[in-house]
Amino acid sequence: MRKKIVAGNWKMNQNKAEAVSFIEALVKEDKPQDVQMMIAPSYVMLDACKQAATDELVIASQNISQHDKGAYTGEVSADMLKSIGVKTAIIGHSERRSIFGETHEILAEKVKQAINNSIQVVFCVGESLEEREAEKAESTVKSQLEDSLFFLSEIEMKNVIIAYEPVWAIGTGKTASPEQAQEMHAFIRSLIVDKYNQHVADATSILYGGSVKPSNAKELFAQPDVDGGLVGGASLKVDSFVELLHSFK
Ligand code: PEP
Predict the structure, then answer these.
(1) Any ligand 1 atom below 6 A from CB of 171
(2) Ligand 1 atom, smallest distance to 95 CA
(3) Per residue in 93-111, pLDDT tens?
(4) Residue 1 confidence (pLDDT) above 90
(5) What CATH architecture is 4-245?
(6) What is the pLDDT of residues 121-134, one digit of tens each?
(7) How far is 204 from 2, CA to CA, in rounded Å?
(8) Taking each helix axis from N to C terminus, what angle separates 178-195 and 137-148, rounded to the nearest 10 degrees?
(9) Catalytic residue among 95, 102, 165, 185
(10) Which residue owns the Cα nearest ligand 1 atom 1?
(11) Where are the domains of the chain?
């Protein structure tokens, strides 16, 4: 069956001393064995975090270049990530889409680049408030998946985690209700069934993201199609991250 996962997206937070002391403290904590932990620090902290981490903790990048190598100032390639042992990348975070102009086409190229280099993808989807209010939440998420992810083969989908992150809930303190999250996660799973099959849908972890914190995680993670969380703010402190790991039934 699919994995339960709590993934911390640190965004542009934590300097080297903070990042390393977080990882060193986390590895010493008492944690449930059946929950996969993941932390995505900034690029410059990846190597130090990898070195401080044990195998039970996945260190992921927050982004990846769609290009192999060359004249792309400021970019980081799949090969560079692999050379420091990073094997997972978040792709399509709403901040990358809205602030940095990453289009469906660019995201498809990033997904291709990651998968071709055996890098696991955490692919983010989610609607804006306007889209939800216009009853376009499902059609938005459907086209995000169809345009940038569903070109993968059934075998390639084994290396994909999906994160549903309604844009209106990211960093705002507003969380989707457990019912809203479950409804969208079930919809995403049904799209995977339609595109691939039940087996792929059952094996794909779908994380919820958007103001997840210890006080709301239990209810969200109790939903049948919510397999864990992609967490920003509440992943910055060891105590709250560990509480999230313990928030599955
Ligand atoms: C995120 O960065 O993916 C996120 C969900 O942030 P927050 O938990 O702070 O809303």
Answers:
(1) yes
(2) 2
(3) 999 999 999 999 999 999 9
(4) no
(5) Alpha-Beta Barrel (3.20)
(6) 999 999 999 999 99
(7) 6
(8) 40
(9) 165
(10) 232
(11) 4-245
